Amino acid sequence: MKKSAQVLTKGFTLVELLVVIAIIAILAAVVVLIINPLELTRRGRDAARLSDLANLQQAINVAVQEATGSAATILCEGGTVPCPGSSNTGTRNSDGTGWVKVNLSAQKSVSVPTLPVDQLNTVVNHYTYCSDGSGWEINTALESQKESGKAGADGGNEDTLYEVGSDLTLIAASGGSCTY
């Protein structure tokens, strides 16, 4: 009797493994392009910026309404007019000596223990404050593609910066009370 040799192959060939690895790499690349984690991070920072500016806008409006002194005294606490401030060079004190020159710590309706700063707080990404004694403005640069359209639609004079305040022409590259 003859014995026939049976060859049992177990495992995958090199070609099969390479094909599977290539398919996984292509799927991973597509997922990264669709999700875009960098853009999601930018959106998160922009959401914090928009929230910070909305909270400051509300606090400054309340301070102006509750105050008994002149607008120049309220919007430029202890300083001369115009009074600029920047979050990347000023302090976070909310008593009018920080980068916002309004005494927000004396308010009864809204509590602002410390002034917010941009998460990056660099030369490009920071908050800028300016008041001419009768109006005020705070602006910042938004970095995500989704939120960048808000900068041109906020009613201000700078299409590349998101602006809030009572006079959105104070901070300008040229011609405003506070230039940058």
TrEMBL record:
**What are the record keywords, sorted?**
Membrane, Transmembrane, Transmembrane helix
Query: Which segments of the protein form a coiled coil according to its record?
Result: none
Entry-linked Gene3D superfamilies: Glycoprotein, Type 4 Pilin
Residue ranges spanning the membrane: these are 12-35
Q: Check the record and name the InterPro entries matching this protein.
A: N_methyl_site (IPR012902), Pilin-like (IPR045584)
| Protein name, UniProt field | General secretion pathway GspH domain-containing protein
